[in-house]
Design a protein that fits this description.
about 325 residues; alpha/beta; 2 domains; 9-stranded mixed beta sheet; 9 strands; about 50% helix; pyrroline-5-carboxylate reductase activity; Pyrroline-5-carboxylate reductase; EC 1.5.1.2; proline biosynthesis
């Protein structure tokens, strides 16, 4: 009972190292962490490098400079959310990818783009490594010598542990982040873990960055695998649920478009009930189930067909795969 009470208190107060989705009145507060990062630059513009030819990035406007190496779906979601939340100006966001075709959607947002990763590395206060896990080692080896002295490296790659990231970017402050695609509409759910050199200021910066596009929670690195199973991959499970509910509606005669909208709004409304009331989901479920009624008959059908177990196993499957990837990377590091 105490555990449930603690969970409910966390939901009600949004404490427990959580950052709530932003609203207009607190966006200024969210910017402060990023602005402190920008202030570290001072007047220094020189970049330490180990190669003969320095890569010069074009100068953006004042404010925190956010770089994204990689232009996939997650980077797209984060950049869209950051621009929409006005955490920093679009021209302070810099995205790189090997193919220009991948950058077209970013250019439309007013952010700067390049097909040269080193330009992003040399011109950003916060560098988000947003490439696939198997590409992370090569990318970090490429950009590490060109990172600004005070740059913060943020990795959103699943399964690459902090120890490996810190080995690939020696002497740099690193944070692991696991966002999800609803960042695109400022409704993301993100977990992050601090590296050994990361500071309290870095914690504030990541809270500001990810809190601007949804909910952010700091966890121990060992918990990121489970968090990935719940929220990192979670939207996909919910899309399947929405599709299945809509299919049921179509089977019973509802137009497809109407069924999808009803199902999506139902999921959204139920989620808001959990977050706003602080009630345990079981309590809210019981409130809908009248004795001998329609909803309890539906719950019986869900239980008979393994709905609850299937959801739990999905989380476990993702977490197990993440652990497998992490162990493989750590094994490479020790060889």
């Amino acid at each position: 009972m105490d555990n449930n009470a603690g969970s409910q208190d966390c939901l009600r107060t949004q404490d427990c190292t959580l950052s709530a989705p932003p609203h207009t009145h607190n966006l200024g507060l969210l910017r402060q962490g990023l602005m402190r990062t920008a202030q570290r630059r001072g007047t220094a513009t020189a970049m330490a490098t180990t190669v003969e030819d320095e890569v010069e990035a074009p100068e953006p406007g004042d404010g925190p400079r956010l770089g994204f190496v990689g232009a996939g779906m997650m980077a797209t979601a984060m950049v869209n959310g950051i621009v929409a939340s006005k955490v920093t100006e679009p021209d302070n966001v810099f995205v790189s990818a090997p193919h220009r075709s991948s950058l077209d959607r970013f250019a439309k947002l007013g952010v700067r783009t390049s097909d040269i990763n080193l330009e992003v590395a040399s011109g950003s206060d916060v560098v988000v490594v947003a490439v696939k896990p198997d590409v992370v080692p090569a990318v970090l080896r490429e950009i590490a010598p060109h990172l600004r002295k005070d740059a913060l490296v943020v990795s959103i790659a699943a399964g690459i542990p902090l120890a490996v990231l810190e080995q690939l970017a020696p002497g740099k402050r690193v944070v692991r982040v696991m966002p999800n695609t609803p960042c695109l509409v400022s409704e993301g759910a993100t977990g992050f873990s601090m590296g050994s050199l990361a500071t309290d200021e870095d914690r504030d910066t990541v809270h500001a960055l990810m809190g601007a596009v949804g909910l952010a929670v700091e966890v121990k690195e060992a918990l990121l695998d489970g968090l990935t199973g719940v929220s990192g991959s979670g939207p996909a499970y919910i899309y399947v649920l929405i599709e299945a509910l809509a299919d049921g509606g179509v089977r019973m005669g509802l137009p497809r478009a109407m069924a999808i909208r009803l199902a999506a709004q139902t999921v959204k409304g139920a989620a808001e009930m959990v977050l706003e009331t602080g009630e345990h989901p079981a309590v809210l479920k019981d409130n809908v189930c009248s004795p001998g009624g329609l909803t309890i008959a539906a719950i019986e059908s869900l239980e008979k067909n393994g709905f609850r177990s299937a959801a739990m196993q999905a989380v476990i499957a993702v977490a197990s795969k993440s652990i497998e990837m992490r162990n493989a990377e750590e094994e490479k590091r020790t060889k």
